[in-house]
Design goal:
Elements (H helix, E strand, L loop, with lengths): L1 H32 L1 H26 L10
Length: 70
């Protein structure tokens, strides 16, 4: 139980640090192009990442869908 709590706390700390780093990195972009455009850029990057992961996952599972039902 204690290791779960420590892992959860560590994940929360990492998420906090990731947010701070993202704010520092993208702070200048937000100031220059506006929050709307920055959200479009970051959202587009996240969609591109998700599409790439999904494409790789579908390629990995390509033969599994063709197996006969048991």
């Amino acid at each position: 139980m204690a290791s779960y709590v420590l892992k959860l706390g560590g994940a929360a700390i990492l998420l906090l640090f990731a947010g701070v780093i993202a704010f520092i990195v993208f702070g200048n972009i937000w100031a220059r192009i506006g929050i709307g455009a920055a959200i479009v850029i970051v959202g587009g990057g996240l969609l591109l990442f998700a599409w790439n992961v999904d494409r790789k996952e579908r390629a990995r599972r390509a033969g599994v869908d063709e197996l006969p039902r048991v």
